[in-house]
Amino acid sequence: MKDKKIKNVFKEGAITSEFIGNSIQKHQSKTTIGAHNIFLGQVRADVIENKTVVAIEYSAYEDMANEKFDAIREATFKKFDLTCMHIYHSLGTVKAGEICLFVFASSPRRKIVFKAIEYIVEEIKAHVPVFGKEIFEDDTHQWKTNK
User: Fold this and answer.
1) I need a surface site. Which of 27, 91, 93, 113 has the fewest CB within 10 A?
2) Cα–Cα distance list, 72 to 89, 112, 132 (Å)
3) What global pTM score does this model have?
4) Range of the domain at 93
5) Is residue 123 part of a domain?
C-alpha cells in the first residue's frame, strides 16, 4: 500500500484574485456541482494600542500543519456531501487588505456548502499550527492571537 501524499496548502505571500478566479473557473466544467461557497480571510488593519497593523507575517510548522489541513479535509468529506474542497493559506508577509486564507467548497446543493465552509474555517482556527506576527506601521511587531 502506498503512503498517501499530503497536499501542501501553503502559498508564499498573498493569495491573488487571479488565483481565486482561476480556481473558480476550473470548476465550471463540473456539471454535478450545484453550489460553491468561498471563504476569504483578509488581513485587517487593526489598531492595537494606538498602532495600526500594516501586515501579518505568517509562519507554520509546515509538515504538521499540512497533516492537520489534510485531516480537516478528510473529516469534512465524511461529514458533508461535497463534490470538492480546496484550502490555501499564505506564508510570509501579507499586507493589510490582502487575502491570506482561501477555502473553496462545492456540492450538488447550496445548504451543504454553507455549513461545510463554517465547519472548515472553525476547524482551521482551532487546530492548525499557523502563526501570525502582526507588523505595525512603526516596524514593531507582536504575535497575533486567534479570536
Assistant:
1) 27
2) 14, 16, 20
3) 0.93
4) 16-143
5) yes
CB pairs under 8 A, 24+ apart, for 137-143?
Answer: 137/51, 137/52, 137/54, 138/51, 140/51, 141/57, 142/48
Q: Are 139 and 55 in contact (CB under 8 A)?
A: no
Q: Is 63 helix (H, G, I), strand (E, B) or coil?
A: helix
| pLDDT value of residue 1 | 44
In a domain, 2, yes or no: no
Consecutive H or E run containing 83: none
Q: In this structure, is residue 71 part of a structural domain? A: yes
- Residue-wise pLDDT tens digits, 62-106: 999 999 999 999 999 999 999 999 999 999 999 999 999 999 999
Number of domains in the chain: 1
pLDDT (tens digit per residue) in 95-134: 999 999 999 999 999 999 999 999 999 999 999 999 999 9
